[in-house]
Design brief:
Oligomer: single chain
Largest sheet: 7 strands, antiparallel
Helix content: 25-40%
Strand order of the largest sheet: 1-2-7-6-5-4-3
Shape: globular
Radius of gyration: 16 Å
Number of helices: 6
Length: 186
């Protein structure tokens, strides 16, 4: 692992008192070409879960619902700041609790928290957000009955996308690792 951010998952897991969230080699996913051609990508894995009877979309629902409050506050601040530059308000992960839509009814093209569903099956869900500056894809994958990985890949379209990623790349590692660390299964 060559990333200078290797310590982030370790710190998050130590502070949360939960099992270590590991940086994970980029797994083979349905959006592999997108990941390989990305400007930014990372992946984390959480082991020791009980996800045998859960579909990928249900795991994502848990991930979103249990995302730490500081992440949702950071998203609100992000939305406020970028709205001044004409970028869209993507909402927060907490929005999943307010949707009122049963999770099993989501399909390709539906908005789910801050993303749009691109592909979904029992073991993998790919979500994305795309605008003039960048395209983000997030894949949550059930690796085994006890393990979940989350992979994020970003393709930038222009200078503004690169500038945005300059500020977002480092904090993103905290967000992804913290989200997985807070994931608890029924």
């Amino acid at each position: 692992m060559s990333s200078k951010f290797q310590f982030v998952p370790w710190i998050v897991s130590r502070l949360s008192g939960r099992k270590i969230i590991q940086r994970y080699p980029l797994p083979l996913t349905k959006n592999q070409t997108f990941v390989q051609n990305s400007y930014f990508s990372d992946s984390f894995q959480h082991e020791g879960l009980n996800v045998e009877n859960l579909k990928a979309i249900e795991i994502y629902q848990l991930f979103a619902a249990k995302t730490p409050a500081w992440v949702n506050h950071a998203l609100r601040m992000r939305n406020f700041v970028v709205s001044k530059f004409g970028l869209k308000d993507v909402g927060t992960f907490a929005d999943i609790a307010n949707s009122g839509k049963p999770i099993e009814t989501y399909k390709k093209g539906d908005r789910l928290t801050i993303f749009t569903v691109v592909d979904v099956d029992d073991n993998e869900i790919t979500l994305e957000d795309n605008d003039h500056h960048l395209q983000v894809q997030v894949t949550l994958r059930k690796e085994s009955p006890t393990s979940v990985s989350i992979t994020t890949a970003v393709q930038v379209h222009n200078f503004w996308g690169k500038l945005y990623m300059f500020f977002v790349a480092h904090p993103h590692k905290w967000v992804a690792a913290s989200g997985l660390a807070s994931l608890r299964t029924p």
